[in-house]
Specification:
The structure is a single chain. By secondary structure, the protein is of the alpha/beta class. The chain folds into two domains: 277 residues, Aminopeptidase; 113 residues, Alpha-Beta Plaits (2-Layer Sandwich). It is 33% helix and 26% strand. The strands form four sheets. An eight-stranded mixed beta sheet has the order 1-2-4-3-5-16-6-15, sandwiched between helices. A four-stranded antiparallel beta sheet has the order 10-12-8-13.
Length: 400
């Protein structure tokens, strides 16, 4: 079956919704909520879906919302947006800045949610006209940025609760502050990294700093361990492999004239391939053992986080093709792999999926405004483009 709308028609409809999408985004931006507390955001989403004639299912994965747009007897496609904010105090000075000190939509999830509502508006119109060849499931996912007391993020819980059951494909997007407005990017295969964390505690023996021979200097032991850890990627990983281990914190010692008896480090482990992930875990354990012949001992705890985000090759190709039809080939790029992590990865390994990066940078700005910073911002001209990209991708899969 041919696509219901061509790219130009989809983009025209999305542009006609620009102010509405912007309004949704700014309402959400003013009232950010952390993961699994997004009750106000969920209520806004549910009300918007009701206005469209879409019955919302609420409290999915605790605070998520799911809506279904039923069309013809074709495939079932999922479109996902994350809805949570970050514990950051905004420093932008816009009239729609966060009203909640210490909380901010600093990663664009407000925009993702608004764009999915815009896409839902277009898709529901098609369904009402009998022009939607399949079914679209709208997945408004909580808590992408963190996990609950059971170690589960919103994406994990949505998968566990069956929100993706019966889907033939799933698609999502994320703002990219390094890409100019009007451009998008994705790639087949690995696109974003796994993200695991570790806590390492080293144990020596306390003594007076003037008598170091009577103790075992744990800070000196830590120096050996840090050197060994920093050689894992360069000397223990295949040179054509990709991975990183970063020590983010180190704490040890109580006073300048006391030999420290413990040192604690925390950090992150990232890679694109499962075999590299396993190797980095093994080699981290091995690097810590370097202190054992010196008389020290250690405790290492690794917490497994998000897996790599691996786009299905066929779905990524379809997404790229739909984007070219929408924006023109010159505006569509093959995305670079990045070491950031994303819990859409749980969805993309459950059903075939692909993830799009949406340019939100205005080249006229004096600088970039990266995610996870107090001055993060987007050019809102990107909002209808994101909504249109979701529609174009969904229709491309439904008519495959």
């Amino acid at each position: 079956m041919k696509p219901t709308l061509d790219g130009a028609a989809i983009l025209k409809q999305a542009n006609s919704l620009h102010e509405k999408i912007r309004s949704w985004r700014r309402q959400i931006h003013r009232y950010p909520e952390l993961g699994f507390t997004e009750t106000r955001t969920a209520a806004l989403i549910a009300a918007a879906l009701c206005d469209l004639g879409i019955e919302p299912e609420t409290e999915v994965a605790k605070t998520g919302v799911v809506g279904v747009i039923k069309g013809g007897d074709g495939p079932v496609v999922g479109l996902r947006a994350d809805i949570d904010a970050l514990p950051i105090t905004e420093q932008n000075g816009a009239d729609f800045d966060s009203t909640r000190p210490g909380l901010m939509h600093a990663c664009g999830h407000d925009a993702h949610t608004a764009m999915l509502l815009g896409a839902a508006t277009i898709l529901k119109t098609l369904a009402d006209r009998g022009q939607l060849p399949g079914t679209v499931r709208l997945l408004f996912q909580p808590s992408e940025e963190g996990q609950d007391e059971e170690g589960k993020s919103g994406g994990m819980r949505m998968v566990d609760e069956g929100a993706l059951a019966g889907l033939d494909a799933v698609f999502g997007l994320h703002v990219d502050t390094g890409l100019p407005v009007g451009t998008v990017a994705t790639r087949p295969g690995p696109m974003m990294a796994s993200a695991d964390t570790f806590t390492l505690t080293l144990f020596g023996q306390a003594a007076h700093a003037a008598r170091p021979h009577q103790g075992l200097d744990t800070i000196a032991l830590a120096a050996h361990v840090i050197q060994a850890i920093h050689q894992i990627v360069s000397r223990r990983l295949d040179p054509i492999g990709e991975g990183v281990i970063t020590i983010g914190t180190i704490q040890g010692g109580a006073k300048d004239n006391i030999i420290a008896d413990t040192v604690t480090m925390t950090g992150t482990i990232r890679s694109f391939m499962p075999e590299n992930r396993d190797r980095l875990h093994t080699e981290l354990q091995r690097a810590c053992r370097i202190i054992e012949p010196l008389g020290g001992r250690f405790e290492l705890k690794i917490v497994t986080g998000y897996p790599p985000l691996v786009n299905d090759e066929a779905m990524a190709g379809l997404m790229l093709s739909a984007a070219r039809d929408l924006l023109g080939s010159e505006q569509v790029r093959v995305a670079e792999k990045i070491m950031a992590a994303e819990d859409f990865s749980f969805m993309a390994r459950t059903v075939p999926g692909s993830f799009l990066r949406l340019g939100v940078y205005n080249p006229a700005w004096p600088q970039l405004y990266p995610v996870h910073t107090p001055t993060f911002r987007i050019d809102e001209e990107a909002l209808p483009i994101g909504a249109a990209a979701l529609v174009a991708t969904a229709l491309a899969r439904l008519t495959l």
